[in-house]
Write a structure and sequence with these properties.
- With 124 residues, this protein is of the alpha/beta class.
- Helix 2 packs across helix 3.
Protein backbone atom coordinates (compact mmCIF):
# COMPACT_ATOMS: atom_id res chain seq x y z
CA UNK A 1 0.00 0.00 0.00
CA UNK A 2 1.50 3.37 -0.98
CA UNK A 3 2.17 5.88 1.74
CA UNK A 4 1.68 9.61 1.75
CA UNK A 5 4.79 11.63 0.94
CA UNK A 6 5.20 15.27 1.88
CA UNK A 7 8.14 17.66 1.50
CA UNK A 8 10.52 18.86 4.19
CA UNK A 9 10.95 22.60 3.80
CA UNK A 10 12.09 24.05 7.13
CA UNK A 11 15.75 24.21 8.08
CA UNK A 12 14.95 22.87 11.55
CA UNK A 13 13.55 19.68 10.01
CA UNK A 14 16.68 19.19 7.89
CA UNK A 15 18.88 19.71 10.98
CA UNK A 16 16.80 17.25 13.02
CA UNK A 17 17.20 14.55 10.39
CA UNK A 18 20.95 15.22 10.16
CA UNK A 19 21.35 15.09 13.94
CA UNK A 20 20.11 11.49 14.06
CA UNK A 21 23.24 10.53 12.10
CA UNK A 22 21.55 7.66 10.27
CA UNK A 23 22.81 7.93 6.70
CA UNK A 24 24.04 6.00 3.72
CA UNK A 25 26.21 7.30 0.89
CA UNK A 26 25.43 5.77 -2.49
CA UNK A 27 27.12 6.69 -5.77
CA UNK A 28 24.18 8.86 -6.86
CA UNK A 29 23.18 10.47 -3.56
CA UNK A 30 23.46 10.54 0.21
CA UNK A 31 20.35 9.55 2.17
CA UNK A 32 19.79 10.77 5.73
CA UNK A 33 16.88 9.32 7.68
CA UNK A 34 15.15 9.89 11.00
CA UNK A 35 12.29 7.90 12.49
CA UNK A 36 9.13 9.81 13.32
CA UNK A 37 8.00 13.15 12.09
CA UNK A 38 7.86 16.34 14.08
CA UNK A 39 4.08 16.44 13.65
CA UNK A 40 3.69 12.93 15.05
CA UNK A 41 1.89 11.55 11.98
CA UNK A 42 2.84 7.93 11.45
CA UNK A 43 1.28 7.40 8.02
CA UNK A 44 3.21 10.15 6.28
CA UNK A 45 6.82 10.15 5.19
CA UNK A 46 8.51 13.45 4.43
CA UNK A 47 11.36 14.04 1.98
CA UNK A 48 13.70 17.01 1.59
CA UNK A 49 16.31 17.68 -1.07
CA UNK A 50 19.54 19.62 -0.97
CA UNK A 51 22.59 20.11 -3.17
CA UNK A 52 25.64 22.11 -2.09
CA UNK A 53 27.17 24.92 -4.14
CA UNK A 54 30.31 22.83 -4.56
CA UNK A 55 28.41 20.67 -7.05
CA UNK A 56 27.78 23.45 -9.54
CA UNK A 57 25.84 26.57 -10.39
CA UNK A 58 22.11 27.03 -9.79
CA UNK A 59 21.12 25.40 -13.09
CA UNK A 60 23.10 22.24 -12.28
CA UNK A 61 21.87 22.10 -8.67
CA UNK A 62 18.24 22.50 -9.71
CA UNK A 63 18.56 19.79 -12.35
CA UNK A 64 20.00 17.40 -9.76
CA UNK A 65 17.15 18.22 -7.35
CA UNK A 66 14.58 17.55 -10.10
CA UNK A 67 16.15 14.15 -10.75
CA UNK A 68 16.20 13.33 -7.03
CA UNK A 69 12.55 14.41 -6.68
CA UNK A 70 11.56 12.15 -9.56
CA UNK A 71 13.47 9.21 -8.05
CA UNK A 72 11.94 9.82 -4.61
CA UNK A 73 8.42 10.12 -6.04
CA UNK A 74 8.90 6.77 -7.71
CA UNK A 75 10.62 4.87 -4.85
CA UNK A 76 9.47 6.31 -1.49
CA UNK A 77 5.73 5.52 -1.72
CA UNK A 78 6.34 1.84 -2.45
CA UNK A 79 9.63 1.03 -0.72
CA UNK A 80 9.90 3.27 2.36
CA UNK A 81 8.48 2.52 5.78
CA UNK A 82 5.77 4.80 7.13
CA UNK A 83 6.49 7.73 9.42
CA UNK A 84 10.10 8.52 8.45
CA UNK A 85 11.75 11.78 7.42
CA UNK A 86 14.37 11.62 4.67
CA UNK A 87 16.87 14.10 3.28
CA UNK A 88 18.41 13.36 -0.11
CA UNK A 89 21.71 15.11 -0.73
CA UNK A 90 22.69 15.39 -4.37
CA UNK A 91 26.19 14.64 -5.58
CA UNK A 92 28.05 15.56 -8.73
CA UNK A 93 27.42 12.06 -10.11
CA UNK A 94 23.65 12.51 -9.61
CA UNK A 95 23.55 14.67 -12.72
CA UNK A 96 24.71 12.06 -15.25
CA UNK A 97 23.85 8.82 -13.44
CA UNK A 98 21.38 6.59 -15.26
CA UNK A 99 17.92 7.08 -13.74
CA UNK A 100 17.45 3.35 -13.10
CA UNK A 101 20.74 3.33 -11.19
CA UNK A 102 19.62 6.41 -9.24
CA UNK A 103 16.41 4.69 -8.12
CA UNK A 104 18.37 1.53 -7.30
CA UNK A 105 20.72 3.66 -5.15
CA UNK A 106 17.72 5.02 -3.26
CA UNK A 107 16.22 1.56 -2.67
CA UNK A 108 19.59 0.28 -1.42
CA UNK A 109 20.02 3.30 0.85
CA UNK A 110 16.55 2.76 2.35
CA UNK A 111 17.53 -0.83 3.16
CA UNK A 112 20.86 0.22 4.66
CA UNK A 113 19.39 2.84 7.01
CA UNK A 114 16.63 0.45 8.12
CA UNK A 115 13.79 2.47 6.62
CA UNK A 116 12.62 0.04 3.95
CA UNK A 117 9.00 -1.05 3.95
CA UNK A 118 10.13 -4.69 4.06
CA UNK A 119 11.81 -4.02 7.42
CA UNK A 120 8.54 -2.52 8.69
CA UNK A 121 6.53 -5.55 7.58
CA UNK A 122 9.00 -7.89 9.25
CA UNK A 123 8.43 -6.32 12.68
CA UNK A 124 4.67 -6.78 12.65
Amino acid sequence: MPIGVERLKKRADFLRVASVRRKWAAPGMVLQAARGTATGETDVSRVGFTVTKKVGNAVVRNRIKRRLRAAADQVIPEHAARGWDFVLIGRQSSLNRDFDDLTADLRLALDKVGAAASAERGTR
